[in-house]
Amino acid sequence: MSKLLSYFKKDILEAGCDEAGRGCLAGPVFAAAVILPPEFENEILNDSKQLTEKQRYELRPVIEKEALAWAVEAVDNNEIDEVNILNASFLAMNRAVARLKIRPGHLLIDGNRFRPQTDIPFTCMIKGDGRFLSIAAASVLAKTYRDDFMNNLDKQFPVYNWKSNKGYPTAEHRAAIERYGITEFHRKSFRLLEEQLVIQF
Description:
The protein is α/β, with parallel strands linked by helices and about 200 residues long. It is built from six helices and five strands. The chain has helices at about 55-65, 75-85, 85-100, 135-155, 160-165, 170-180; strands spanning about 15-20, 30-35, 70-75, 105-110, 120-125. The termini are far apart. The relative contact order is 0.22.
């Protein structure tokens, strides 16, 4: 039996929501919303950060097949620069919720804050992706779809090694920015270099 909980409020259709890519220097932030059936069980499903890449990709089709409804949405780097990463994360989650084919009665949001764009009641759950199956499922979808996006971008911009770092601020990624500059997919509002170097955008 999974140690994760099936629901927060019994007898209400809940959608778990989570995002991926908030801390990245490049690429969109992705978010997913997932409504699982009450009887859903899975031995492996957990916070996506606790899973291997192989486990995440094995879980994705299971979640998509067994969920009552699911959706994945993204907010690109230009929008992130306009509205800031926190608001972009909220926006991506709201977009995912809006695309669900079933309207949930309650939202479970991973994290401590949310700005809804609907009147659906919500509860924020700190470390919710390690506590509730629906949020864990959303974390897996958001992470794998974002990884797919960055793997694809890596083919165009191999010098940043996005297939490995997925746009996160690794030393290698920062060194590549220092050497080659930035792409149209980098977040200009982020501190892209460790040192306070001036970059001409």
